[in-house]
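Input.
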Amino acid sequence: MLDLIVRGGPVMYPLIFCSVVALAVGLERLWYLLKARVDTEDLIDEIRLALGQGKVLEAVQLAKKTRGPVAATLASGIAHYDRDKEEIKAKMEEIGREEIFKMERWLSILEAISVIAPLLGILGTVTGIIKSFDVLAGMHGLGTAVELSAGIAEALITTATGLIIAIPTMVIYTYLTSLIDRFTADMTKRSNELLEVLDSRGDY
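Output.
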């Protein structure tokens, strides 16, 4: 591994940095989002039951003790149950936007790395080819073949490394984005269901 890094030339160092950052951000976001997954259907059923019995405080506590963006959005709606419908909806939308922002944190870094890594690989290809042409321009004996192969190796290693970093980074970025889309859709669905429950109780 160390030999490949050395043969890949100076461009390998920013590529290694990109790989470390992508791995760290990817694992952190994956852990955060997977930890936030809960059965929101059971949650809304429990909240509906509590509100049906007039236990507003219990409904709030049910939402607050449940992890995840959906529960946080519902908690904000229940906490303002005595306000008019539009105000409750606006409050849930506000909290929903905050939760989406939390979920999307650092994702732009993954997106950037998936673009930058192949470009760095291309840069390494260019510098490697330049070295090879410099060798060809000053051919002077048997040592030339070794020097020429070093330039070609640098070009190929950096290109491959850039792609090796970019492809899984884009895969994890796409997967995380799909998780966030599911959370967002679930927040909208459960928020509308809560509004219907509150509306049926005549609290507006």
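The helical segments are 2-8, 12-35, 40-52, 56-64, 69-79, 85-104, 107-137, 143-200.
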